[in-house]
Amino acid sequence: MAISDFTANLKTYAERGPGDLKLSTETRDEYLKLIADLRKSFQTVLEQANVGNMGEFGNVGGLASAQQTKRNLQIDAANFRHTIRGCIKYTDELEAVVTKAATNILKSG
């Protein structure tokens, strides 16, 4: 399932009616802290992936196989960064959904 599918599902859950579960503000805050910590971890990974121009790999010489390997590594690095950005976006959506769902649950008593 793609991240966009998870995001769509999260938005659907956020829009549903009143809560039918019991939840304390402390538990909500713990959930939100876990999500924030996860996002921070993804952000750190992304920052580390961007340090030193990951994907440059220097001069590999004139050998065709070495040049192709370098191109493949550059593509892999770009795809990795794209995936991590998607994970960050997912945690943002998750935080919004948990916040809204927790508000509905807490209102319902």
Quick summary of this structure?
With 109 residues, the chain is mostly helical. It is built from 3 helices and no strands.
Averaging pLDDT over every residue, what do you get?
85
Distance between the termini: 34 Å
Would you list the SSEs in sequence order as H and E?
HHH
β-strand percent reads under 5%
Radius of gyration: 20 Å
Number of domains: 1
Structural class: mainly alpha
- As residue ranges, the low-confidence spans are none
Helix content: over 70%
Q: Report the total helices.
A: 3
Q: Describe the global form.
A: elongated
Largest sheet: none
Number of strands: 0
Structure description:
This protein has 109 residues and is mostly helical. It has one domain (22-108). Helix content is 77%, strand content 0%. The protein is built from 3 helices and no strands. α1 packs parallel to α3 and α2 runs antiparallel to α3 (64-108). The chain is elongated, with a radius of gyration of 20 Å. 5% of the residues are buried. The model has no long low-confidence stretch (mean pLDDT 85).
